[in-house]
Amino acid sequence: MGAGAAGALVAIQLCETAARRRIPFDLLLIDPAPEAGRGTAYSTLDPRHRLNVPAGRMSCYPDDPGHFVRWLCHHGEPGVRGGDFAERYRYGAYLADTLGRAIMAAQGVVGVRRLRTRAIGCHWTTRPGADPSARLELADGGTVEAHHVVLATGPSRATAEWAPEDLRGSDRFIADPWAPGALDAALGQRHKEDVLLVGTGLTSVDIAMTLNRPGRTVHTVSRGGRLPQPHAVDPLPAAACTTPLPGLSLAALRAEVRQHIGRVMRTHGDWRPAVDGLRPVTAEIWASMSTAERAEFMARDGSLWNTHRHRMPPATAESVGRMRRTRRMRTYQGRLASASARPDGSLTVSLATADGPRTLPVGWVVNCTGPGLRLPGTADPLWRSLLDQGAAVPGPLSMGVATDHGRLRGADGGATRPLWTLGAPRRGELWETTAIPEIREQAAAIAEAVLDPWTAPALPADGGRAPRRARRPMDTSGFPLSTHAAAATAYRLGVDRLLKVRAGAPRALRRSVALDPGFALGHAALALIGHECGADVDVSRALADARRAVRERADDYERSFVDVVSRRVLRSPADGDAALLRHLEEYPGDALALAVAVPTIAFSGLRDLDGTTALRVVERTAQAHGGGWFHTSLLAFMRQEQGRYDEAGTLAERALAAEPASGHAMHALAHVHYERGDHEAGRERLERWLAHQGRGGTHRAHFSWHAALHELALEDAAAVRRRWAEQLSPGKVHGVRALVDSGSLLWRARLAGAWQGPFPIGDVLDSAPAAVLERPATAFVALHAAIALTAAGDLPGLRRLRVHALRGDEVQRSVIAPLCTAFEDILEERWAEAARGFERLLPRLPGVGGSAAQREIVEETLLFALVSAGHRDAARDRLEERLDRRSSPHDRRRLTALSS
């Protein structure tokens, strides 16, 4: 009952949890509003009304904090950041859209109906041998029955009991400014009278901005006379209090909080981190207070707390400050004492203020006192019916209702009815419970409580016999899957395409989770290829789905794999690598995990600096794979990384004979030809493979890049230009691949002097998402972002990338950040400094991932810097060393030029 923000959040969790667990039920949403998800708070169309919580903390999902920010990025605001304050109307659209998607995903499992009316009564009946059920009376005269009821009614309407009787009867008194059309008269062109807003909280601030117009003064009055404090433009992290606060007397609590704020002020110069640091323990502190202490806090400290805890967005604060500086907004500490009508219909109001009586002529008085807190005496017929029959009782200080973790307590003291509430009705118990970060947690808990009785039981904890289960389908490697046959078939197809480096893997994996939203491995594989392969996947969302699903339905193998993906996405590279090694130790036959471990063409691999760990993994897992084509392909790649080119070539040819479409084997062979200096043969073999078995490959651009390397070595500039136009230009290559292959080729061509005329690096940058350029998730992608930005001469972009790297994992901090500095030196023609920077970093480059041929671009840039700095001997030494390893007409010509 109620389909605003709180109701939408519960409905989203119910639909998604039921779809994962395959629990069928009917969901009924009862709310008179034209659109679900908005409620009163998010229906405003005024763009000046913004959220008072940053977008990064407004996700629908407790375990996916960036969901709202990503939604904004995909819905017309690509540059939004987590610290931005979005328009409230946009958040309403987000809630409605997310709810719609959840309902669509649960089709066939959850039947959803919506009634545009109000519930005005709820009466419980219990029949012998049956669960309790509710009969809901509706405002339109109808009734419905339900087995579980969630009261998502939101905050109570503001009361006007404080207003003088004459004022309450005036058509110039606006009792509810959020009611549709309530402010129309005050906004009319004919009326420019001043207005009085009773209340100085966030509601008052919003209404003041709406009613602001030239020639009008907006007066505001409240007992405290305080406006909300502003959020910081550049906020600092929350600072937790070092002293345990729950259990202290109110006097001791005040003293400790003051000391905590003082310490934070001295350290950071700002009180906000101190207040934010209290948020995790606010409910615990409130629960530890006695009734008398809570009452005293409300009377003495409540206003001060609210103005500092519930703050204005910076843009709102700037607007309010401008209104106050120009005297178009005035604030008083006091109360409205009386109001009388004037001959023209306007009002004369008398204020009793701290500075003495004050009389004001105003056109309207607007009630901005905020929602009512106390439940007894409520006019809401739904809550009245529950109170009258003893199904609900008031909470502490008569604020809201009493609950047991959201389940309503009745007059008998128990919480026996399947009746829940969340948000504002729990304020008496929790105090802080009206913001989305708290409500979304409560919504998830309610969904769990409602659906848990229908969830299939887990295996017996006492070692008893488990119920007999149907045989589970297998994955590509022979491990059982916790899903049904159709989803398993789609998953196997997706993994098979990943192992062969062929197109279609994301589509097949999406199909697997569409068929079974509770299939953990399907979600995990999607998160993996989004994070490491640049697939068009909402990585955070897929990972959150995988982690939810694996808690509900999975075996040890599946839990281990999801843990690997979680750590690679969320933790440091070292942590992710350690988890992957543990997984392969336990499950050496897992081909997908092995593909992730080896830095070939599909994944970044294990990021050890000496490059031996991946080799040991491949050798140790050989027995489990029995010489199959996939393992042989990976072994071929590792042998060429060791410089054992003859053996690598033999293994690659063996794998291709068994599976001609094996992209990993062809990739190993491409490296063998390049490192041997067999440039003509290498280009020809790649051309044949691309024209036949490689036509459906997902990394065709990378094989084209390999062919272009041969052409650069052969100094065939015309062939490089043709290959760019036909196979590597943006439009033919997209996203991360455009950055890694197309962008790096352009930079190599420029360094080699093989590119004359217009330089299309701007097209590459335009085809890559801004987040990939400025906030790349892996060091390997960050390296190529730095190269592309350097090729474009984008010095500010390089500096932003360096700042991001300094906030990243150890490899980004220690390798990518100084690499950005060296590339900056290139752009500013500090050649010697650039050369020294690259020289220091070359030994650490393997930790970035990728192949030696890909990382060689840094050495190419180093050679360019050495020659530009006049260090010809050092450049000659490097070229001679390379020519000792492999033949290259281009390197031979450069060496000759340096020796002349």
TrEMBL record:
Domain FAD-dependent urate hydroxylase HpyO/Asp monooxygenase CreE-like FAD/NAD(P)-binding: residue ranges: 2-154
Cross-referenced InterPro entries: FAD/NAD-bd_sf, HpyO/CreE_NAD-binding, L-asp_N-monooxygenase_NS-form, TPR-like_helical_dom_sf, TTC38
A Pfam match: TPR_19
Highest taxon listed in the record's lineage: Bacteria
Name recorded for this polypeptide: FAD-dependent urate hydroxylase HpyO/Asp monooxygenase CreE-like FAD/NAD(P)-binding domain-containing protein
